[in-house]
Amino acid sequence: MKTHFGFHVNAFLQIKIVSYIPIVHRVIKVHEKENGDIEFLTKGGNIKVDDRGSYKEGENWLEKKDVVGRARGLLPYVGTVTIIKNGYPKFQYAVLAVMGACVLLKRES
Average pLDDT for consecutive 10-residue bins of the chain (109 residues)? Predict the structure, then answer.
């Protein structure tokens, strides 16, 4: 397996694309340009297609600048919580209410 500065197929990288929240996805393709720069394509674990639909408009590959770090372990389905939290504001308020109640109840004990 040929590596390009740690970007190799099946490596799990923490990347920052359009949103401000970094995500961990797997590298599925590595592309070396003629000038030696490395580009790569990623895919989420529970998604059947690659991440190109999530990249910035007109961007088909990620570059080194998009990498925040490397993953050393995995927690499958954790990203689903973030998706639900961001997609359903009422869920976010409910979680905050439960957390607030826990803090208040803990103080009384």
Answer: 64 80 87 88 86 87 88 78 79 90 80
